[in-house]
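Renewal narrative, Specific Aim 1. Our central claim is that a sequence can be written position by position from structural information alone. The example that follows is taken directly from our test logs and has not been curated for this report. It begins with the structure tokens describing the chain, in the order in which they were read.
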């Protein structure tokens, strides 16, 4: 039976129905029906915000009062979420915690989904019961083991449909999901094709054999199937770890009310704020990264806002079907640090990227013209290609991906592309993650210094294009601080004379920089992951690191003071010259208990 048949049948039944026909044809003869008004949607919305609708952006969330930067605007548990396939055996499918030391327990039936304890398994059973059987059928019919588990969009849509049927098609739960925006009538051709594939996969996953079997899930027509997939594509968000690592996908109709801006005043994060006694995790929180005035719309960003305008616009149009008119898109800075070269005369100003149409470019400050703009255009083009290739190769051929990013960073840097420009910043961030993935356990000083320099370049780029408190920027600072605090395998002796200092510094100067960077990171993490969450899991970790590094610095300063007191004739420049990094030495002279030996200067040893 096709959807057209179902509709005809339904219309025929309606025509035969006593209630339907009598109400339709003779409304005044029958006593008025008293019906309870449907329960309103989003009843639990905090009193500080409200939903409004505009012709330009549809539904939206507005603040009703002043919202403070770093404050949680609202938090909620997404009603539907799944882990991505590669994370299934590393995280609990219910509370999304990483495997405890005792390990996760696997569902003995589907052997695919894992839990941290029986409570989590019991809490998931209402939804997993259907999923478990569907996964077993899917695995039995899979042509090979690498496709034995359905991809996360299929599993997520499965949970959405089973949830709708279980809660009831008129329940608030279902109506909130069905009210999410669909772009069925304006799908671009490539989206129509991918939506069709996904729809077929979902129907197979649910073991449905005829379209009418979708009716109990609230899908009554072919258009309904397209709506279902389009709603998922437009409104689903990435389920992330507290450090923004992607873990899976989720749908929250409340979060889905928030519109996009490339210059957002809020962010969506999963800070993991509690030990989860109430079973709230995974808890998604929307946090203000700026002060928000009463009556202001709340915006988050759906895409990577370090990208240049044209790429942002293309991504928003293809996935979300709108042209962004935010401040950054309609009045971009001149030049935009995402598309700029440093001044050829190094005056401190910068020049917009040249383009094929307009190859001439000048420094906006001193007006010096950039020579050889052809070389710049070539570098930008091959840089973009290298970025795509290295992104593809990062898991299958790490050395090759690393070689690509390394070479391209040198080429783009030689054209004087600024660290925040695209694709240099994207290549730098990718290179950093590749270096960290390949980090040897017996790491050398050169390798450590190398990754610190790349991490510093990422921070420099990100701080030019993302506002204070943006999670990506805060996490980049935390990463740099942590790298600077790593024990140096072979610290360089303190530089003699007043020559140019190298980066990163060694010894105590490095420890001081680590401490400053971690303090800055903590300050920003408190904004991005919320003050009430103490900056989330990463914020709390960084706070502990700051305490440790400060203690090390204090121990070092105390050591210096002791030695200076013991050796009254020691000159200041001699103090900085003496550096000894051996554990044995520090212990042997017992000046202070070294917490982190590599950063401690033992003057006495050298003096002897
Ligand atoms: C997650 S929904 C946001 C809520 C949506 N406005 C609604 O009515 O349900 C995403 C969709 O909202 C619309 N949208 C979001 N941000 C927008 C913006 N800045 N300008 C225009 N439309 C926007 C687009 O249609 C987009 O596909």
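The sequence written for that structure reads:
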């Amino acid at each position: 039976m096709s959807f057209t048949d179902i509709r005809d049948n339904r219309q025929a039944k309606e025509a035969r129905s006593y209630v339907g026909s009598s109400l339709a044809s003779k409304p005044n003869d029958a006593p008025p029906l008293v019906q309870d008004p449907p329960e309103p949607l989003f009843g639990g919305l905090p009193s500080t915000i409200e939903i409004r609708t505009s012709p330009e952006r549809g539904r939206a969330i507005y603040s009703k009062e002043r919202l403070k930067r770093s404050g949680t605007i609202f938090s909620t548990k997404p009603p539907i979420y799944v882990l991505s396939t590669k994370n299934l055996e590393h995280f609990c499918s219910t509370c999304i915690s990483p495997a405890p030391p005792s390990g996760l327990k696997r569902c003995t039936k589907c052997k695919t989904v894992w839990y941290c304890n029986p409570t989590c398994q019991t809490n998931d059973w209402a939804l997993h019961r259907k999923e478990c059987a569907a996964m077993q059928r899917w695995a039995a019919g899979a042509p090979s083991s690498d496709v034995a588990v359905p991809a996360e969009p299929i599993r997520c849509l499965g949970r959405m449909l089973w949830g709708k049927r279980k809660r009831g098609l008129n329940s608030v739960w279902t109506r909130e999901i069905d009210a999410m925006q669909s772009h069925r009538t304006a799908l671009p051709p490539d989206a129509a094709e991918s939506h069709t594939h996904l729809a077929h996969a979902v129907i197979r996953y649910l073991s449905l054999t005829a379209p009418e079997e979708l009716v109990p899930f609230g899908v009554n027509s072919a258009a309904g199937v397209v709506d279902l997939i389009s709603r998922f594509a437009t409104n689903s968000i990435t389920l992330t770890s507290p450090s923004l690592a992607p873990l899976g996908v989720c749908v929250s109709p409340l979060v889905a009310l928030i519109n996009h801006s490339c210059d957002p005043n809020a962010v969506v994060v999963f800070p993991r704020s509690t030990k989860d006694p109430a079973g709230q995790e995974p808890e998604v929180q929307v946090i203000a990264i700026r002060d928000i005035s009463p009556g202001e719309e709340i915006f988050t960003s759906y895409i990577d806002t370090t990208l240049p305008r044209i790429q942002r616009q293309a991504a928003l149009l293809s996935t979300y079907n709108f042209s962004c008119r935010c401040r950054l898109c309609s009045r971009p800075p001149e030049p935009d640090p995402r598309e700029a070269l440093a001044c050829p005369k190094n005056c401190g100003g910068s020049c917009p990227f040249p383009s094929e149409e307009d190859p001439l470019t000048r420094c906006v400050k001193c007006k010096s013209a950039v020579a050889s703009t052809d070389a710049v255009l070539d570098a930008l083009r091959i840089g973009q290609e290298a970025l795509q290739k290295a992104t593809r190769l990062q898991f299958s051929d790490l050395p090759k991906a690393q070689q690509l990013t390394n070479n391209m960073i040198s080429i783009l840097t030689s054209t004087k592309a600024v660290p925040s420009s695209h694709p240099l910043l994207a290549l730098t961030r990718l290179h950093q993650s590749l270096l960290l993935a390949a980090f040897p356990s017996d790491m050398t000083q050169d390798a450590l210094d190398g990754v610190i320099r790349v991490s510093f370049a990422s921070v420099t780029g990100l701080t030019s294009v993302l506002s204070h408190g943006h999670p990506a920027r805060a996490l980049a600072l935390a990463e740099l601080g942590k790298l600077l605090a790593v024990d140096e395998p072979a610290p360089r002796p303190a530089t003699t004379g007043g020559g140019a200092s190298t980066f990163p510094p060694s010894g105590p100067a490095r420890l001081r920089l680590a401490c400053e960077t971690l303090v800055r990171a903590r300050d920003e993490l408190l904004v991005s992951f919320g003050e009430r969450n103490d900056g989330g899991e990463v914020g709390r970790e960084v706070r502990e690191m700051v305490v440790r590094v400060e203690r090390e610095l204090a121990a070092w300063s105390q050591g210096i003071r002791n030695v200076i007191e013991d050796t009254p004739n020691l000159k200041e420049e001699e103090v900085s010259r003496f550096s000894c990094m051996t554990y044995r030495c520090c212990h042997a002279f017992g000046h202070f208990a070294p917490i982190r030996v590599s950063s401690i200067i033992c003057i006495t040893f050298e003096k002897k």
